[in-house]
Amino acid sequence: MREIPEATPVPTHARPDDPGIPHEPDIPDDPLGRERSHLAASRAALSAMRADVQALDLTDVTGNWVNARILQREITARIAALADLADTPLFFGRLDYLHTPGEADSPLPQPSADEHGTRFYIGRRHVHDKDGDPMVIDWRAPVSQPFYRASRAEPMDVALRRRFGYTGGELTAYEDEHLSDPSEADTGGALLQAEIERPRVGPMRDIVATIQPEQDEIVRAGISGTVCVQGAPGTGKTAVGLHRVAYLLYAHRERLARTGTLVVGPNRSFLHYIEQVLPALGELDVAQATVEELVAHVPVRGTDSAAAAQIKGDARMAEVLRRAVGSGLRMPTEGLVVVRGSRRWRVPVYELDEIVTELRERDIRYGAAREALPQRIAHAVLVKMELGGEAPDDRVQDAVARTKAVKDAVKELWPPVDPAKLVLRLLSDGEFLDQCSEGVLTEDERKLLLWSKPARGVGSAPWSFADAVLVDEVRDLVQRTHSLGHVVVDEAQDLSPMQYRAVGRRCSTGSATVLGDIAQGTTPWATGSWQEALSHLGKAEARIEELTRGFRVPRSVIDYASRLLPSIAPGLAPATSVRDSPGSLDIRTVEAAGLDSAVVAACREALTHEGSIGLIAADARIPGLAEALDAAGLSRLEPGEETSRQARLTLVPASLAKGLEYDYVVADEPVAIVDGEPDERTGLRRLYVVLTRAVSGLTIVHAAPLPRELDSDAR
Ligand SMILES: Nc1ncnc2c1ncn2[C@@H]1O[C@H](COP(=O)(O)OP(=O)(O)OP(=O)(O)O)[C@@H](O)[C@H]1O
């Protein structure tokens, strides 16, 4: 980070004998020095906390080795969580309250240096001294909230908000806002601005020091409701989603430890990119998966045409599958006889009919009903036994349920369903498909669904990703999918209705955070309305929030990319940019023969700047550009590979650019990016994604004319 001069002189109420400041013999009398000694004392306290945990003797407290191992694992995790990371400052802010929080009505007139509890240092984790008094407060604690939300208009009882600036782990600057002092002017926040504009190297980092009020509202929203965030590129959706997970794990740790949390992202390189954020916030117990991974019940080796995938992803398929699952159900045509010893017990057909009808009408899973059926039949037998003077107990009922007669009847009336085999039959057997989709799908749609050659077995069928989602739906119809406590779905605009259902059943009893941007939807089934998407997710009552303040893309670049909005998402407001620097936008027109070498030259120039570089091109152009870079001796990374100071250039196929960002982006031949998609709107949306990945500058290199939508006169 850049060195920032001290923004504000000595705060009036900070004295060396303040409670938050260690009582050391040589306490510096300059404010920065005092803050540094609080940092040093906090680090010492943290290492004492760590040493305490390390010194725990488990021999007496654990009765057996299983307990000992569980405890040991927890302790190892706790020790790891208490590590003092050199490059993550222990605290980044300070709040001085006017009154002791929780006692807002208390008559304390001014923040007093003698009052404990009025001053809080805000950091990534809680640190306390040997007496248990807090030295650093977790950013997620309620007393930290005003750090993010308080304003001059609503100071939330805060007298002073101080932000700290660090250079290479050293506390080098601070900046104050006296929120309750009407005479102080708004200084704009140079530290905040510098932190936001810091160049990017390596994976995504946390934004815990600079979360903005509108983001904080989403981060701290209650766990019981689902929140959906429509956000323009770079407005912090991904960052907000990850911080929300960290917040929920803090506020509802026990509940979520039991039920689990999951982040769903569009692809592995995206998940690699965000992978470091939660551990940096001290949260390790969060699963990450793509939708493909969630539904990996069959080996996917086939692909669908866009038209076929669209139908397979249509919500109407849920009804087709429901019918398919129920297609094997039979009503009884004859009674059943159970032989026990010398006696025979008969369940007449009308009684079986009643049992089956009652089970069919109940809202339970196919598999659960199938498990209940033998017990119901056995119970009917038991009643007869009692009427016949016998006194059977529960074991007799179980034994009756296991008799061949009952098992045969169950197989006949309620046959087992193998989800993959059922979907295989649906996609191979035209008659069966007709029967299940009567009145739901058109003739043409059915034709699109059928495989050109019926598949012989589950192992060899040409399963596509969309088919795997169908199998997942059937699995859920047979047996309820386990629901997690909270699921975050990023880039959600690209999910099909059937994929929403797949994600939704994984949080059916929990809640979700849905993040996306309609303008960045690049699948043929991309959602046009969040309301509709949320109803497929099973969360129609979710709250929808919109973010438009962009933290990534500089003004000149976002204004340019936003020229595409009227064609790709007419209803959406263009993003603004909070970045002070207007950024650089450079559009170079070259001869077709010189395109590759001009692109290489642009990359070379970009490498003269600090930070990461992304060369983004249509997927079809990637092999050629890889060769050109190799020939020029420029080393390149694959998306998802970590950038370092030595290797900073990533060659990114346009199809994988979503969610990623680079300090400088070189965009190759926009028209090729548009033409790489099945239709023009999708192509322009893909281009919009590509043009909005840059943090500091964008260079566009093209030989073919640019799409006319980018031409300001054509708008
Ligand atoms: N409050 C903030 N302070 C500092 N940086 C921020 C803040 N909010 C977001 N950012 C940064 O802005 C960049 C964009 O954020 P993020 O990737 O979460 O946006 P997004 O809305 O998911 O974008 P996209 O739609 O393009 O995927 C990231 O580098 C993120 O760290």
From TrEMBL:
Keywords: ATP-binding, Helicase, Hydrolase, Nucleotide-binding. Gene3D superfamilies: P-loop containing nucleotide triphosphate hydrolases (3.40.50.300). It comes from the Bacteria. Residues 1-34 are annotated as: Disordered. ATP binds at G231, A232, P233, G234, T235, G236, K237, T238. Residues 14-34 have a biased composition (Basic and acidic residues). InterPro entries: DNA_helicase_UvrD/REP (IPR000212), P-loop_NTPase (IPR027417), UvrD-like_ATP-bd (IPR014016). One of its GO terms (biological process) is recombinational repair. Residues 210-563 form the UvrD-like helicase ATP-binding domain. The keyword Nucleotide-binding applies. GO terms for cellular component: cytosol. GO terms for molecular function: 3'-5' DNA helicase activity; ATP binding; DNA binding; hydrolase activity. This is DNA helicase. It comes from Wenjunlia tyrosinilytica.
